[in-house]
Write a structure and sequence with these properties.
Largest sheet: 5 strands, mixed
Oligomer: single chain
Number of strands: 18
Structural class: alpha+beta
Length: 765
């Protein structure tokens, strides 16, 4: 009897404990739900549940529909449930919540299992609870700091806060289950959760660790990704591959347990390697990094304007709102431009190293080494200024620090290289590297199709398209000839004598005279037609046109075409002495190719929100800048560089891009060969290339190596060959063709008379 009474007391105690605990939990849930006495903090509203805040990356999309980059703080690219492959769905359910389809947000059976096994058999959180935790940051201070209403008095107490947060997750999980379908919850969870290494969401994680789209994921890769969810840091495959492999095999075991994998296949799957192809996405990676930075300020400005009319809780953010930024860039042309620049500049850099072997390449106008060049260059750096501040202007200590070797990674054309160099050694290394800018544009609609601001964005952030201004040399001459034709001073058939031209006080010079030399220092003293003179880039002829026109008319014509930089109205303007950007040069040449109509280059076409609502659209203004007859005659003149014997771009004939095509060109080389330019013009593509050292004192020592035809033209030729070989681009109109002639325009291109049928037109089938 005694023993029976003892057991009855134990049973009654357990029964009362169970009832009391259950009532206590219910009361706690009710108290948390209604924020009793403001102890627990508020809960997300219905609006917040239906419109949860999530940091979604804004995507940059090319005109041909390809994603070329992102702006983000948390790298996240959401997918719909229908886009999730079965491999991922089955693996997630088997590993994280086997009864996902059977419960309503809280799995009572799993909770009791956790209690009775003390957590050794796994956690009790459902996918819905984990979504609530990740979506509303219930375990972090963010949950309260983002909105003080969420932070109750008890949530400031360690330990208690965890209990309250857990209860809030239960409530939120049930509410989420009421608001969303199971499929939506699963997709939201996989889009929200972190996979480590700034990879948020399953799509980004797949790209980060395997460099593939989620639709192509294998079963073992799916197991690796889902395995990371338990603890992305602990199972980071980049630093702990053995733990990642062990965790992946546990996940594969779960798949076998729930019969998504056969017992026969399991050992073979578990024996596979991880096969990682790891690369973190950031501002330095992906296509068109210079372009992405170039449009960032434009997009930020648009967002600022849009936010003026939006409620506080609906403000747009470039890095978190999941915007879609549709651009003019063509992913194929961008790829071809990047490949072409890389191929050409790798060879050009080797040539430069060989040219200066055993000598320093920083020289003055007399080609003598500039003493103290590196030391002066270092003094202009932020590193030097920071050290001077840190060491209280003690130069001895500063230079001691600058000469101390440290471990670093440097750029090479064979990839990043880990090495040990002092900051001074590093400066010495980088000053010897040539850089490049390349831009391609469709002159008929203003769409910028390719944008290469430099050779490597990670190491060279300066953009040689929009930020850099250099002397354009002879690539400015088409504006000189164009102004002369526009003002009816000459026609392409007229002749001038190649002879010295001297400018003096009557031309605005003071304190002396100036006689421009031809590139070879010689004059032929022969009559030369305008087309041939421009094709051979004869300086004396440009000087004669300057004499007749005056610099003001030339500057005016260049500005009409698209040059926006101030132009010094002095005689040397005829040889390209005023600095301009590559962006302006491409814009100006495009006016010539577009029948005299100026269209500002356009980079962004439209911006939409994450569900596709158009927020802003862009269309470039079109302005009749110069006579269409002048523009067409200038395309004929520009072809002279390719077609005239001895033309500066005659080398293009050795490529496949000339045959069956009308293509204009102009090379440019500045004093001491500091800048090599090339401008290529077709009816559908105008492209410009600049090559040189970031410091003007770093360059080749001879015209044979330093001219634009050698330094810049090959990159253009390679690019156009790739474009013309792409049949998908040909279908879209980017193929060989003649320039479009104005209606009712007649000119005797044989130069025998003033009216004749245009004999240069090429009929392209």
């Amino acid at each position: 009897m005694f023993e029976t009474g003892k057991y009855e007391k134990i049973i009654r105690f357990l029964y009362r404990f169970f009832i009391g605990s259950t009532l206590g939990i219910i009361l706690l849930i009710v108290a948390v739900n209604f924020n009793f006495l403001w102890l627990f903090g508020g809960m997300p509203s219905l609006y917040e549940l239906e419109n949860p805040k999530s940091q979604v990356a804004s995507l940059i999309i090319s005109e041909d529909g390809q994603e070329i980059g992102k702006y983000f703080r948390e790298n996240r690219n959401p997918l719909e449930f229908e886009e999730l492959p079965d491999n991922i769905v089955h693996t997630l359910i088997s590993t994280e919540d086997a009864r996902f389809t059977a419960h309503s947000g809280i799995d009572i059976r799993s909770m009791f299992r956790v209690v009775f096994t003390l957590g050794t058999s796994g956690g009790g959180s459902t996918i819905s609870q984990q979504l609530a935790k990740n979506l509303f940051h219930t375990r972090s201070m963010e949950f309260g700091e983002d909105d003080p209403v969420y932070m109750g008095l008890l949530m400031k107490i360690n330990g208690v806060k965890t209990v309250v947060a857990k209860v809030k997750e239960w409530i939120l999980a049930i509410r989420l289950e009421r608001r969303y379908t199971k499929q939506e919850i699963m997709a939201m969870y996989l889009n929200e959760v972190s996979f480590g290494n700034n990879a948020y969401g399953i799509q980004v994680a797949c790209r980060t660790y395997f460099q593939k789209d989620l639709k192509d994921v294998s079963l073992t890769e799916a197991a690796t990704l889902i395995g990371l969810l338990q603890n992305p840091s602990l199972y980071d495959p980049r630093v702990r591959p053995e733990r990642t492999l062990e965790r992946r095999n546990v996940v594969l075991g779960q798949l076998a347990k729930y019969e998504f994998v056969t017992e026969e296949d399991l050992p073979k799957l578990q024996a596979e390697d991880l096969n990682l192809h790891y690369r973190v996405e950031n501002q330095n990676t992906g296509a068109a990094p210079y372009f992405r930075e170039a449009i960032r300020q434009q997009v930020l400005s648009a967002i600022k304007e849009l936010n003026k009319d939006r409620p506080e809780d609906q403000q747009l953010n470039l890095y978190t709102s999941g915007l879609r930024i549709y651009t003019s860039i063509d992913s194929r042309m961008q790829k071809y431009a990047e490949e072409s620049v890389k191929e050409h500049m790798r060879a050009e850099q080797k040539l430069f190293y060989d040219h200066w072997r055993g000598r320093n390449p920083w020289v003055n106008e007399e080609m003598k080494e500039i003493k103290g060049f590196l030391k002066d260059a270092m003094k202009r750096t932020q590193r030097y200024r920071d050290l001077m501040s840190a060491y209280n202007n003690d130069e001895f200590k500063v230079w001691e620090e600058l000469r101390r070797p440290i471990k670093m990674t440097v750029f090479t054309w064979d990839g990043d290289k880990d090495t040990t160099l002092s900051p001074m050694d590093s400066l010495n290394y980088y000053k010897r590297i040539l850089n490049c800018g390349m831009m391609a544009m469709d002159p008929m609609n203003g769409h910028v199709k390719a944008w290469i601001g430099g050779i490597n964005y990670k190491y060279f952030k300066f953009d040689h398209i929009s930020q850099s201004k250099r002397q354009p040399g002879s690539t400015f001459k088409p504006f000189v000839y164009g102004a002369a034709i526009e003002n009816e001073i000459v026609t392409p058939c007229d002749e001038l004598v190649d002879e010295p031209v001297t400018f003096g006080e009557e031309d605005g010079l003071s304190g002396g005279t100036w006689t421009p030399q031809n590139s070879d220092g010689k004059y032929s003293y022969q009559n030369m037609k305008m087309r041939r003179a421009m094709g051979l880039s004869i300086n004396s002829i440009s000087a004669k046109l300057m004499k007749q026109l005056g610099p003001d008319k030339i500057a005016e014509f260049a500005h009409k075409c698209g040059i926006e930089s101030p132009l010094h109205e002095v005689p040397s303007l005829c040889l390209g002495a005023s600095e301009v950007s590559l962006f302006e040069q491409v814009s100006g040449y495009s006016t010539l190719a577009n029948g005299g109509e100026k269209i500002d280059p356009i980079l962004v076409l439209r911006i939409t929100d994450k569900v596709g609502n158009v927020l802003r659209e862009y269309s470039p203004p079109v302005k009749a800048a110069i006579k269409p007859e002048t523009a067409y005659l200038m395309t004929y003149m520009l072809q002279g560089a390719v077609q005239e014997p001895g033309g500066t771009a005659e080398g293009l004939k050795r490529t496949s891009i000339v045959s069956g095509n009308e293509i204009g060109a102009k090379t440019g080389t500045t004093s001491n060969y500091s800048d090599g330019w090339f401008m290529g013009v077709t009816q559908k593509i105008v492209a410009g290339v600049w090559v040189g050292g970031d410091d003007r004192s770093i360059h080749f020592r001879s015209l044979a190596l330093g001219q634009g035809a050698k330094m810049a033209m090959p990159a253009f030729a390679k690019f156009m060959e790739k474009v013309y070989a792409d049949q998908s681009l040909a279908i879209e109109g980017y193929r060989k063709m003649p320039f479009i002639k104005p209606e009712n325009f007649a000119f005797d291109f044989s130069c025998n008379g003033r009216v004749a049928v245009d004999s240069t037109a090429i009929i392209v089938p």
